[in-house]
Amino acid sequence: MSTLLVNAGGLILMAAIVWWFWLSPSEGSKPDNDHSHHH
Amino acid sequence: MNEKTALHPALSISGASCQGCVRKILGALEPLTGSADQVEVNLEEQTVALPDGIDTGEAARIVTEAGYPASPLGASSATEAGSGGDHCHSDKVQEQAEAGHTHEHKEDKAESAGDGEQIHLAVTGATCASCVNTIEKALKSVDGITGAHMNLADNTATATGQADPRALIRAVESSGYGASVIEDPDAADDRKQEEDRKQYKTLLVKMAISLGLGLGLMIWGMGFNTMMVTSDNQMIWFTLGILTLGVMVATGGHFFTGAWKAFRHHNANMDTLIALGTGTAWVYSIVVTSIPDALPEMARHVYFEASAMIIGLINLGQALELRAKGKTSEAVRRLLDLRAKTARVIRNGEEQDLPVEQVEAGDHIRVRPGESLPVDGEITEGNTRIDESMLTGEPMPVSKGAGDEVSAGTLNTHGSIIYKATRVGSETALAQIIRLVKKAQGSKPAIGRLADKISSVFVPTVMLIAVVSALVWYNVGPEPAAVHMMVAATTVLIIACPCALGLATPMSVMVGVGKAAEYGALIRQGDALQTAGKLDLVILDKTGTITEGHPAVTRFHAPDDNTGRLLALAAGLEQHSEHPLAEAIMAKAKDEDASPDKVTGFEALNGKGVKGELDGQPVRLGNRRWLESEGLDLAELQQEADAITSEAGTPLFLALGNEAVGVIGVADAVKQDSEDAIRRLHDAGIRVMMVTGDVDATAKAIAQKTGIDDYRAEVLPEDKATIVSEMRGKGYTVAMVGDGINDAPALAAADVGFAIGTGTDVAIESAGITLMRGSLHGVADAIEISRATVRNIHQNLFGAFIYNSMGIPVAAGLLYPLWGMLMSPILAGAAMSLSSVTVVTNANRLRLFRTSNNAGKEGNE
Lengths: 39, 861
Description:
The structure holds 2 protein chains of 2 kinds. Chain A is mainly alpha-helical. Helices cover 56% and strands 0% of the residues of chain A. Chain A contains 1 helix and no strands. The longest helix of chain A has 22 residues, at 2-23. Chain A starts with a helix and ends in a 16-residue tail after the last helix. By secondary structure, chain B is α+β, with helices and mostly antiparallel strands. In chain B, the strands form 6 sheets. In chain B, strands 18-30-29-28-19-26-27 form a 7-stranded mixed β-sheet, with helices on both faces. The longest helix of chain B is centred in the N-terminal third of the chain and has 40 residues, at 185-224. Chain A binds chain B through residues 3, 6-7, 10-11, 13-14, 17-18, 20-22, 24, 26-39, and chain B through 18, 20-21, 65, 67, 85-88, 91, 130, 133-134, 137-138, 141, 175, 263, 265-268, 453, 456-457, 459-460, 463-464, 467-468, 470-471, 474-475.
């Protein structure tokens, strides 16, 4: 059970990092990485 | 597509270069225009067309907020080439730069064409390349700002455009950093020095506290107790944990606030990594001490000492970095120190010492031997020798007399002079040089922009790697899994700080630009500094570049060796003439102490020469054809005349009565050191070519004399740019060296334009590099310094990249399966600090660099 929780937690954390720093828009100042998909 | 109403280009944008960008702009403008069909984005021209009746100011604001700095056309048409640093467009600019294109000129023009006044800000709290990106972006998001640029090496930001400085400060502050407007850059320097000193001390105190606590905990835990939590020491460890938290907040609070502010804006920087790393270790430890039973016995290890020590080590690194940074701006400080504080002004016949700020143009100023000149001006009385080495790199003091121009900051070595102030305050050549050097020091070459781009993606990536390594340790690692997870994640976060990466380029650029200024080469753009290192062809203009630019006597010969009489007679004739050749002969006579004879009845004969009378005898000075037609025998002078012709000079024969007295060779003499300088260019593996409007024979003679590989003669001034483009087309990276006025198109067409200055004319727009003294050695010096700087940047970047790319896998535990080694987070903290200190130290090493022409520097040291 704890293994499942820890791994799920880790994956959610990674998804959150990707979402927060790459995908989610922010007011006025987009993150640098916003256009990284072009390259 | 639907029928469109008439669209007119309404906005100028920057940073958009792909269909993704177009979609984003269309989407952003849709609420305003009602339909995306009502908007057209022209990527090529970087404009947005809108239907009539749309508020362009509002549209510009929306597009800027979407990430593409925009301004209404007509209001401001500036599209700063480098703006939108995170967008595809800047990639293109960068690729062009790397492919050897001269976009520095375009940038220059964009900058000067923009209505952009520049607003300078002092920024606090920026520590790494990600911070640079965040700040630049925040500034660019302000309405009316067309470009922004942050220099991490001296913590200043420059925004170009029209905006309220308070809005800029708010923008920087809202992204997590501090900012204040630099009103007076000179005063700001002194203030910054003072602040740096204070901050250095504060950092050392913080370092001592946190490192002291960390070491204390380690010694106590390992020596007298245990780092494992047991029921006996649980309370003690809990108390120590709270103490650690207090110390972390007191000595490392700025990391946490910085991280939080960046996080709120969807950014991550060095603070993020440190805060996460030390925070994870502390949270883990406090959980262990609060509820030890929740974890297996083996995992009840505390890491309070790691949190405290990492913060201490990073504070130490920043303190060392701060001190080393101070040294890189030495060149500018030395220039600032040249400014005299007071001037002895003569007003209404009275001499008075006034602060230099009160000197006005038109004032007469007395300067005694050994004093520095306070402002620029023109000598009205007295003769002296002036040491200009500090401005031009020219080691020998220059003789000056009435009518000659003098510059502020130079040293009067010899006589007492009075001169009239022509340029004062910020108008002086010295003030312009300081501005130029500072600007160039802050500019970023293409290579630096690449590093910034990489590090901006870097931090979130590192966070992902940390989570992945924690999960791997948890799933396949040995027990205690929780401890290993935590140690691996913390160590990865700590070791990966990109601070060294962020410092690598700006540090070297600052030192390199300053070093070049010491040698009298003013670099206007970081890009010129980078490109100068890649040059493989230097095209030289002849007149004034290789040669002195005005005729001078190169040889004189009298069959009876009475050259004194020859010069006295020639000067006696020529003193009545205003021809440039006459000036050359008069100057030579003066040099040789030959006083002009009293020649009367002067007459100039067009195309032949001049004649007069001395004691009833005719004196004639002119070309061979004329004198021979007058029946004179010049056979005796033939050999000397041939020698003069072969050196691209013009022989002038002198006859007194019916006797040939001698021959004088006049030529636009090759500068004494041109040959040496060209040899240095050859030694550096560079091909040298000359372009000139002169006839082939003259060009050939000069090319042979100076060792030039190739020449083009009879070139019209406007064709020089074509030749530059032609050579670039053949694959050469071309430098053009010439004066800033006639050769401006050719200078702008070259990869790097070198303008040969006269020592005062520093603001030559068309050139990437301005040489303060007329010597070609400046070109070789600039190229050598450029190569050394680029090498230094490469070393720094290589070091920083290698360090990170090796450090992260080791920190993640890659060596554990092999040797059972897992890096301690404390070691990671030390290594991280060491990496920035190494970069800064390596950049400082460049200060010791000397070019191969040491002679040129002797006067300066």
